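Ticket reopened. Same input as before:
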Amino acid sequence: KNEVEQSPQNLTAQEGEFITINCSYSVGISALHWLQQHPGGGIVSLFMLSSGKKKHGRLIATINIQEKHSSLHITASHPRDSAVYICAVHFGNEKLTFGTGTRLTIIP
Amino acid sequence: KAGVTQTPRYLIKTRGQQVTLSCSPISGHRSVSWYQQTPGQGLQFLFEYFSETQRNKGNFPGRFSGRQFSNSRSEMNVSTLELGDSALYLCASSLEPGPMYGYTFGSGTRLTVV
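Engineering reply: fixed in the latest deploy. New output:
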């Protein structure tokens, strides 16, 4: 069965801390997305990757194809980073399958 | 450049009614996909359209349907609404279907069924 698991479910940290959110999937994929959802519902696509590592500002996403695992890192976290972060994958050419999300709260 | 536009933003309907939601993709994007988000089930894929054809469908009953027009705008329809259909409905557009293209999401339509 094609599954996506995220951890942790909830994460609370102090401003400035280094944040890591993890995503594991059950079988080989063709692409993985990291999404950010703020209260109110709108979703922003942060990264799409199929191998290696990508960086945008304070955000870094990595993927290890052999271990079927991806991580999203946030450096120098800020309260505005508080949101739900969702991992989503394409198993082959199939539709997106989503993880359950990680609710991140950054305390000033 | 305008983003993905979903209308309406909020909707309240009564059980048994039907509802139509609209999604206008980014100009030039030809693929539109729809998702349902609930607290219990999270985000789930509903269907995907490309060139006015349904390309893929998720595990939802036949009460959920959709279509795409020649200008790539898409609508989804839910008939005989049930309380469990209360959810945030999101659409996303991409240049073309498939895993190699990124998605741009709309702000969603929050449907409440009473």
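Residues 46 and 76 of chain B are 9 Å apart (CA to CA). The longest strand of chain B covers residues 42-50. Please confirm and we'll close it.
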